[in-house]
């Protein structure tokens, strides 16, 4: 498609289409966060608002003033550039209630965007006026030529949008939603959260944001507006459970979720909390939290997400001490790697747990386990009379008020997996005659 054809497409856009169909998705693709339409009687110079983080991790807010048609140098016309600049002045002078209703913020930069051209001489005249108040560094004027460059670089599919049939778009949408659902399901995200995420993608003005590390990824937090990926040190990324809290990576995930929720109550401690949320070593996570957050608002409160986070920290500290001694004992016995591998194999039984739960018709659901020493795996033993059974878990198939159940009282496969991991640890303790009090007296720090 040549530049003339692209200009024709731009020129046909109404102001509403320019805002909603072009600028909002374009800003998202350029890396700006949560672009939202702010058009209306109270906009005060702001058609669209979004933000980004600078190198100091500070939010910088951008406002877009979107216009259709050519912008002239006529000071008395609504399409005059100087008239629009006066509108922009309002964007800088009037605070904006930010996207999370945390506080009022001021705009750092404004773009004046038009689908038409900037009439020769108009921009130079306005820039000269802006220099007197140093606003020339905070205002960008973007005409059709510059807008085409931005679209070509970041949102090239916009030019072909009119060629897509409704059926094609529906197929693409369903495929993407199906992929998102599969991705979240594979990582044990609750059904209600999955539906909320899908609904928000379809109907919300907020765009999901993904932050990630490279190695050892797992989900740290999932909301309708973001999927955060995190990482845990390899020494703790296993399925040997703590008697205090269970799976280490899971409690880290839950703790980080409550930590992220508490961010909105924090101002002075925000920098510490942000750094702590990126830590991968559970011990450092506990120590830094207790040193830098525990006595600060809102973490000293007895209620709310910050209190939930501090509770998780207490469980985490207790459990990490428990694992330190237990893993040291396993290492001395030459059974640490063996225990890790077998615990990992229990996590791999999750699809089998799902099938058992879905197909069971009995009131009591009993699952037997055996160790396949040849493959170094724990497997489900379906012969209840087998001599190879090493431990067993038992549940009521339906228990309306049971702990960790689905809303209909049915079993949650993840909870079945966790129960098996706890039962396996008990089996190992009995097998190796682990006495934690006696071992703690004997333990010598390496």
Written overview of the protein:
There is one protein chain. A five-stranded mixed beta sheet has the order 1-2-3-6-7, with helices on both faces. Strands 8-10-9 form a three-stranded mixed beta sheet. Helix 12 (336-347) runs antiparallel to helix 14. The chain has 15 helices and 13 strands. Among the domains are: 3-162, Restriction Endonuclease; 336-442, no CATH class. The N and C termini lie far apart (68 Å). The model has no long low-confidence stretch (mean pLDDT 81). With 446 residues, it is of the alpha/beta class.
Keywords:
Restriction Endonuclease; single chain; alpha/beta; 13 strands; 446 residues; 3-stranded mixed beta sheet
Give a concise summary.
With 446 residues, this protein is an alpha/beta fold.
Q: Unreliable segments (pLDDT under 50, ≥5 consecutive)?
A: none
How many individual β-strands?
Answer: 13
Which second-level CATH architecture of the domain at 3-162 applies?
A: 3-Layer(aba) Sandwich
Mean pLDDT: 81
Distance between the termini: 68 Å
Helix content: 40-55%
Determine the number of helices (DSSP H or I, runs of at least 4 residues).
15
What percentage of amino acids are in beta strands? 15-25%
- Judged by helices, strands and strand pairing, the structural class is alpha/beta
CATH class annotation of the domain at 3-162: Alpha Beta
The radius of gyration is: 29 Å
The description of the largest β-sheet is: 5 strands, mixed
Q: What characteristic shape results from the CA principal axes?
A: elongated
What CATH calls the topology of the domain at 3-162 is: Restriction Endonuclease
Helix and strand string, N-terminal first? HHEEEHEEEHEHHHEEEHHHHHHEEEHH
Strand order of the largest sheet: 1-2-3-6-7
């Amino acid at each position: 498609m040549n530049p003339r054809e692209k200009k024709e497409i731009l020129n046909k856009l109404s102001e509403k289409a320019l805002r909603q169909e072009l600028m909002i998705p374009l800003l998202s693709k350029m890396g700006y966060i949560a672009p939202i339409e702010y058009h209306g009687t109270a906009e005060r110079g702001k058609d669209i608002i979004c933000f980004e983080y600078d190198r100091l991790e500070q939010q910088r807010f951008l406002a877009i003033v979107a216009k259709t048609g050519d912008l002239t140098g006529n000071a008395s016309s609504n399409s005059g550039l100087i008239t629009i600049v006066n509108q922009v002045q309002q964007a800088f002078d009037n605070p904006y209630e930010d996207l999370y209703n945390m506080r009022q913020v001021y705009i750092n930069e404004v773009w004046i965007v038009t689908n038409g051209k900037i009439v020769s001489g108009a921009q130079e005249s306005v820039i000269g006026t802006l220099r007197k108040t140093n606003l020339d560094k905070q205002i960008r004027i973007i005409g059709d030529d510059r807008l085409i460059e931005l679209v070509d670089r970041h949102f090239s599919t916009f030019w072909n949008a009119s060629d897509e049939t409704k059926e094609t778009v529906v197929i693409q949408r369903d495929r993407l939603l199906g992929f998102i659902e599969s991705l979240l399901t594979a990582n044990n995200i609750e059904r209600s959260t999955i539906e909320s995420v899908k609904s928000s993608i379809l109907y919300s003005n907020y765009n999901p944001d993904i932050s990630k590390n490279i190695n050892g990824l797992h989900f740290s937090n999932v909301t309708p507006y973001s999927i955060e990926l995190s990482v845990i040190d390899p020494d703790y990324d296993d399925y040997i459970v703590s008697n205090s809290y269970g799976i280490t990576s899971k409690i880290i995930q839950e703790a980080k979720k409550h930590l992220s929720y508490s961010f909105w109550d924090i101002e002075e401690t925000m920098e510490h909390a942000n750094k702590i949320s990126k830590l991968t070593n559970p011990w450092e996570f506990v120590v830094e939290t207790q040193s830098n957050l525990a006595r600060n608002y809102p973490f000293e409160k007895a209620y709310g997400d910050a209190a939930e986070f501090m509770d998780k920290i207490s469980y985490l500290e207790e459990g990490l001490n428990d694992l330190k001694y237990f893993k040291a004992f396993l290492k001395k016995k030459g059974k640490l790697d063996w225990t890790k591998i077998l615990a990992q194999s229990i996590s791999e039984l999750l699809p089998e747990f799902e099938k058992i739960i879905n197909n069971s018709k009995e009131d009591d659901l009993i699952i037997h386990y055996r160790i396949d020493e040849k493959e170094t795996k724990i497997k489900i033993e379906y012969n209840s009379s087998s001599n190879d059974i090493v431990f067993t878990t038992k549940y009521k198939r339906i228990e309306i008020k049971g702990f960790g159940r689905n809303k209909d009282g049915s079993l949650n496969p993840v909870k079945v997996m966790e129960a098996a991991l706890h039962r396996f640890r008990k089996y190992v303790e009995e097998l190796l005659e682990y006495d934690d009090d006696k071992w703690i007296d004997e333990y010598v720090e390496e």
